[in-house]
Amino acid sequence: ARTLHHLVILLLLRTQLASWQDVRQGPGYALEPVYPACTPLKPEDFYSSKPSKAGKDIIGRTLGGLEALSSACPPDFFEPLSGLPGLEGLQLIRWLDALHAVHRPSTLAAVSVGRRQLAFQEMFFMQLQLLQRRRDFLMRMARIAPTPHIADSRAVDALRNTKAGSSSGSSSSSTSKGLPYALTGAQERALLEIMEDLRRPVAMLRLLQGDVGSGKTIVAMLAMLAAASSGYQSLLLVPTGILAQQHFHTLQNLVDRLPAKLQNDFGKIALLQGGLKPREKRDVLGAIQSGASRLVVSTHSALFTKDWKKLGLVVIDEQHKFGVRQKEAVLELCDSFHPHILSMSATPIPRTMALVKYGEMVVSALYESPPNRQQVDTSVVEDNPAGRAEMQNAIQAELAAGGRAFIVYPLRSVLDAAEEKRLGAAAEVEVGEGDLRSATAEFQRLQKQRVFGTDKCVLLHGGMKHEDKAAAVEAFRSGQRPVMVCTSVVEVGVDVSQASIIVVEHADRFGLAQLHQLRGRVGRGVLKSRCLLLAPSANAVAAERLKVMESCHNGLDIAEADLHLRGAGSVFNAGIKQSGGVDCTDLCSEEVAKDPRIVEVARALAANALMQKDGLSPHLQQVAAAHHAARNGGAEGTEQALGGFAV
User: Fold this and answer.
1) Residues ≥6 apart with Cβ < 8 Å to 505
2) What is the model's pLDDT at position 323?
3) Which region, left, alpha or beta, applies to residue 84 given φ > 0 means left and ψ of -120 to 50 means alpha?
4) 229 pLDDT exceeds 70?
């Protein structure tokens, strides 16, 4: 029992123990690890070349206890992966040998081998958990309700089989205008994968991931049309009213291109969002519950709408903006069927990161931009009088050429700045050189000083009423107010082809992925477009990050650069808890950053283990439970998991 307790300590503190900070020459070993402090333990408690005092050299005594225990245990007790199919060619060492290599290293090469082994085993159990979650989810849903069989592709075929933008030709084209553009190869592949999922007897659980402007929306909407032509309802769930309005009009334009017979079958497209008048809301809800509307676009309001008639497909746009419980609520919208679920993300992350963050989903990726998308010239501009003059001149030039301009701020008002200061952040309330600016204050200043002319600016932020937001977007789109002063609310949902320049104030306060999303608001038309990132020069770390935006225009390249600059830990752990508590140690994330193949090989091995005829062995199940408890359950959970071991 004492030795198992040592094992508990080792599991719980592995982040600190395995990621020692430095090495030094020592009398007992060629190298000595230097451990960080871990209250109430001191670094010297973990290792001591002269462990004379009680409590010293915890690691050495733990390793010795484990070795003694291993001699009294079955051969595979500490090697739960032994015997798994596919393990032969991986050249892995024993787990105990890996612990010795990391904590009692003879050479730096041995440290590297040991760390890789520990990372691989940890990643194996993480992938095993994710794959088990996916399997259990699908089995549970299959027991609760049948899965819709969506096999009617008439609407999709009517749009794809007609030459893009044409209204003449074959018999089908005489009744269908077809898509206004041809799908890219990546879009065709993703659509094929989704359509195959929709025909299967198990519910789809897929992530459609792609770069800004890669065409995810049209792929998702074609899937919605397939569901509608098969007699099922489809829901497009979005986080903001602005995005809901945009998707509603896009979907309506797509349906208008279909033959009249299919349009009549689909019924009226429903738009459900906050701000509807009582009678309008009653009509929309009635059409949803009766099945009269097969195509529905909605904000969070749909999550409170029960008794759907025949919901077959749910598309979740900007899925990272929805919480776990909100996503689970989707499964309770319809009692008759368990809908297929397609999530979309416009925040590209490397494939290995996707396998960790979204491991329970199958991933389709779009990294091929449509041919009409332009590259946006990006420059980092120092936030000083000269830089601000350059920014204003650039905007004036774009307006003179018929373009539109975005000016994005991190805060909507000085009240936000005051609250941030109260909470301890370094932000000033007063507006001035070097201070934190806000959208509302700058809008008032630009209007008062007529920097871009009389009444040329419009304000947009998340705190405005729905009708005011819609009016602001329309004034900007029409050119009546060609300068939009806004917060990052424009990150999604504002698609204006005439927009040709975007300025991001205090760009150092935004993440690279968010900056890439904001940059995607321009370059959507024929005008050559620019992106100016204003930031102070004092922050060298932020300057290095922003330089990435100047040289990288592909979202995947930016994600890889972000991984390199921030380290894997931040990328792995951001949002992981939202997906259900899966997490990994710093050691694992650091090793995966060095060799991403660890993730894919571990996932393949875990999938093979689950597909074995006899399933997982009881011992492997117990070790998997211990790994999961050590990551998420604390000491009590780990002791309970380890208590099942029979020694």
Assistant:
1) 383, 407, 408, 409, 410, 437, 442, 534
2) 67
3) beta
4) yes
CA distances from 641 to 204, 289, 341 (A): 32, 46, 33
Distance CA 630, CA 632 (A): 6
Residue 279's Cα: distance from chain center in Å? Answer: 37
Residue with tokens 């070349």: 49
Sign of torsion over alpha carbons 590, 595, 600, 601: negative
Please give the structure tokens belonging to residue 367: 């990294």
Q: Is 378 exposed, middle or buried (0-12, 13-18, 19+ CB in 10 A)?
A: buried
> Side by side, which strands form the sheet with 530-535?
377-382, 530-535, 499-504, 404-408, 483-486, 457-460
* Arithmetic mean of pLDDT over the chain: 77
Residue 638 has pLDDT above 50, yes or no: no
CA–CA distance, 269 with 263 (Å, rounded to integer): 10
CA distance 304 to 301: 6
Contact 364, 354 (CB under 8 A): no
Q: What percent of the chain has pLDDT over 70?
A: 74
Handedness of CA 448, 454, 456, 460 (dihedral sign): positive
Tell me: pLDDT of 283 over 80.
Answer: yes
CB 104 within 8 A of CB 60: yes
pLDDT in tens, 489-500: 888 778 898 999
CA distances from residue 632 to 9, 534, 588 in whole angstroms, order as listed:
14, 41, 15
For residues 120 and 602, give the distance between their C-alpha atoms in angstroms, rounded to a whole number.
7
| Mean pLDDT computed over 36-45 | 67
> What's the confidence (pLDDT) of residue 398?
94
Does pLDDT of 455 surpass 80? yes
Amino acid at site 98: A
- From its phi and psi, is residue 590 left (phi > 0), alpha (psi between -120 and 50) or beta? alpha
Name the DSSP letter for residue 304.
G
Closest CA to 217 of 344, 391, 361: 344
Measured between its terminal Cα atoms, the distance across the chain in Å is: 10
Handedness of CA 384, 390, 396, 401 (dihedral sign): negative
Per-residue pLDDT, 17: 41
pLDDT at 6: 42
pTM of the model: 0.71
Task: With beta carbons less than 8 A apart as the criterion, state whether 127 and 358 touch.
Answer: no
**Furthest-apart CA pair in the chain: how many Å?**
91
3-state secondary structure of 235: strand
Which long-range contacts link 195-200 to residues 24+ away (Cβ below 8 Å)?
195/153, 195/156, 195/223, 195/226, 197/340, 197/362, 198/148, 198/150, 198/151, 198/223, 198/226, 198/227, 198/313, 198/340, 199/149, 199/150, 199/151, 200/147
Write the pLDDT tens digit of every residue in 438-448.
999 999 999 99
**pLDDT band at 630, cuts 50/70/90?**
low
> Which position has the higher pLDDT, 201 or 437?
437
Spatial distance between the Cα atoms of 610 and 626, rounded to a whole number of angstroms: 18
Q: Are 175 and 147 within 8 A, CB to CB?
A: no
Q: Alpha carbon 248 to chain centroid distance?
A: 24
User: What per-residue confidence (pLDDT) applies to 588?
Assistant: 81
- CA dist., res. 445 & res. 399, Å (int): 19
Kind and range of the H or E element at 14? helix 14-18
Give the chain's length: 647
Give SS3 for 302: helix
Q: What is the dihedral of CA 245, 249, 251, 257, to 10 degrees?
A: 180
